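Lab notebook, bench 4. The sequencing result for the construct came back, and we need a structural model before the next group meeting so we can plan mutations. Quick request posted to the team channel:

Model the 3D structure of this chain.
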Amino acid sequence: MISVLIATQNDEEGLAGTLAALVSAAVEGVVREVIVCDAGSDDGTELVADHAGCVFLANARWVDGVQLARSAWLLFLEPGARLLPDWIEPVVTHVVSRGGAATFTRAEEARLTFLQRLRARRPLEEGLLMPKADFVSSNCDAEAFRGKGGLRRLGARIVPSSPQN
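Done. Here's the predicted structure in token form:
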């Protein structure tokens, strides 16, 4: 149903945490595959991806992962981001209703202060769920697509990766 794409570089711990949150969805058949697009890690990132059964693409960009993705829906996540356990049902409902591109709701423990909201944020810190066809037709990368705004907000919650990840 969904192909998950994670872009990483030297973040084996963050990747492991993100992958752990996807296990139940993989067991339920919601997550079909996880593709790790790596920008040249020299730590254990590849080993973590391999042990988790991910497709690992060395020296790859988002578009490389999208080309390999077998699902009609894509979920872009940063390494270190954690989807909270209640995420599966809202995502499946959104996908089945063909709701278009959407982002996750920041978990209460990860809410931003007023000053943090004023600062520039990372485009994918709250994830991005979208139809593969929309990504292909947009002619841009995931960060640029997310930066366009106007996305629906899922009821599913996420704890974004910390800024140093």
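The first strand starts at residue 2 and ends at 8.
Will bring this to the meeting.
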